[in-house]
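Issue 218. Parser rejects a valid record. Input:
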Amino acid sequence: MSVTEREIVVETEEARQTPKKGLRRELSSFAVLLLTLSSLSPVVSVFGMGGDVLHQAGAAAAGLFGFAILAAVVWAVVYAELGSAYPYAGGDYVGVGRILGSWAGVVTLAIWAVTAGPSLAFAAQTLTIYVGQLAPQIPAPAVTFVGLLGALAVALMSVRRGALITGLFLAVESVAIAVLIAVGAGRPVRGVGAILIHPVAVGAGGSLAPVAFSVIALAAVSTVYATVGGNQALFFGEELKDPHRRMGPVVIMACMGGAFATALPIIFVVLSAPDLGALLRSPAPFAQFLSARLGAWAGPALSAGVAVAIFNANIVQLMGSARLYFSLGRDGLFPMPVNRLLSRVDPHSGTPRSATLVVAVFAGACCFLPAHTLLVFMTGLLVYGWSLVCLALLIGRLKGLTGAPGYWRAPLFPLAPVVGLVMAVGFTLADLADKDAGRPSLLLLGLVVVAALVWNQFGLRRRGWTPQLGESEG
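Output the parser choked on:
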């Protein structure tokens, strides 16, 4: 027997010996919906990327977020059908890999795995901005790492207890969104037509000027990225009861609920701001809007609500990423000791605690990197991951692997995946035009894609690896 043959036998035996103990199937549709909405965090989307879009595209942000709701419909439909057919802890990569082949599964898992730490670290660093407004005497690094440790403490609990805690935080977040919508919808001072036909933004001299189409096109990618979601539900698929029947509706409700909760506040604020110029010039436009409408007390109250929302999102993102890493270990992607560590399920809590700790350490290490570097790691995910998901759904339905009886089935097929692929082309062009973050992100994650393909060709393919369909405990 040659050295290569012995290696294949050893790796196959390692994969066979990897523990197969599953997660506990104990979550209701409502619990998964709460977890998913907490991960989406409309408050973070509004005050994070929503504020950036306002500064970049000015009043055109209202029209962009209206368009993003339509993009969210496509996103929801695609992920609902794929998630209904493949509701597993590995998220996208299980369905994509089973339909398109191991190469696509490895690429998908690689880009999700490498962006998990940077995404958590970026949110943890963002928390310091809003806590600093309430307690400026606390050092920023302390806020970052204490916030991450707090999220870890909740993520290590049983998934049902974690869902309850994040649901309570989500209620606080929902109040902040509801107040913003109510105040904005109460007294509009400009019409939708004027905003759409003659959008303005702050020009070089500080005065309002028409927005260039190229600026609007570039801001559209950030708008869609801030508005879409719901696919996070897939990470909890092995803990959801009757997942093939329930996952599709959960994804639809989460995606569209998050989309409206993100888009409506921004649209109404643009329509109702008493002084549009002051709104667009402000570094904190939504706090400025509420302070102008309700008084100076609204700004600190809003900062507290945003801080709670960011912390809540970090909890659920950590929980979801841990289940992805658990799936990698269970599928036997690494040497046996690593697989055993990642695929270990705590007998008391029923959670993948080892995988949770690994992700938390990864995120903690990423906290030492600048925020812009972390952003570069993250933004290209939308292009690569979304393209493979749409292609998988298109081929999966044709092969009878999705949309089967009893599963959620996308209407008007193949409209949604085809429109999704067109969207992916648009995202690619916009990222290539963004030399600060988009273009470097595409190139960096492109190297990750190449490394994943090499890994698949020379490491996984020779032992016939394919994404596993998880088995949860009843």
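Fixed in the parser; the record now loads. Residues 1-19 have pLDDT under 50 and may be disordered.
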